[in-house]
Write a structure and sequence with these properties.
With 167 residues, the chain is mainly alpha-helical. The chain has helices spanning 2-35, 42-54, 59-65, 74-82, 104-116, 118-128, 134-144, 148-164; strands at residues 86-91, 94-102. Residues 1-6 have low confidence and may be disordered.
């Protein structure tokens, strides 16, 4: 009987993991399909939108805000600089610090990417049917607690709240 409980528990956890992974893959697939006409990937759009919204950022600061593989966005930023969407400059007052900015074309693409992703957001809203997401947020936060990704989520929330605060 104890074995059945363990097996049942493991199956539940595996099912939860399967659903999370499937949702992440489906999200990436749908968003990449929407961004394809713009010539950028989901990761590139995320970087552009973060730099546009919170920039200028150092490479390290951008890395702490990105939900990306590896956690260090140097290759991603290199590609975006090469394509003329981001630029690097020495920080005013500290020439050792390199800051990343959106170019005018990068800013336009960041806005276009947000608009392109709107059908996905509408689809998710329809799929959710007005459900209260508070328990889901609490569940996902509990799973991420103590991980590097929980810190990334916290930093993004903090930046968003600061940017939206009046004054």
């Amino acid at each position: 009987m104890h074995t059945a409980c363990i097996i049942g528990h493991v199956d539940t956890i595996e099912e939860f993991g399967l659903l999370l992974k499937a949702l992440a893959r489906e999200t990436d697939r749908q968003i990449n399909d929407l961004l394809r006409p713009l010539g950028i990937t989901t990761g590139q759009a995320e970087a552009l939108q973060l730099v546009d919204r919170y920039g200028p950022l150092s490479l390290g600061e951008l890395g702490t805000l990105l939900i990306a593989e590896g956690g260090h966005p140097s290759r991603l930023v290199d590609r975006l600089v090469t394509t003329g969407l981001l630029r690097r400059e020495s920080a005013e007052g500290d020439r050792r610090r390199i800051e990343i900015y959106c170019t005018p074309r990068g800013r336009e693409l960041a806005v276009a990417a947000a608009k392109a992703k709107e059908p996905f957001r509408a689809w998710v809203r329809d799929q959710l049917g007005g459900r209260d997401l508070s328990p889901t947020f609490a569940l996902l936060e509990a799973c991420l607690d103590g991980t590097r990704m929980s810190e990334t989520v916290r930093r993004r929330r903090t930046r968003t709240l600061a940017a939206e605060a009046p004054g």
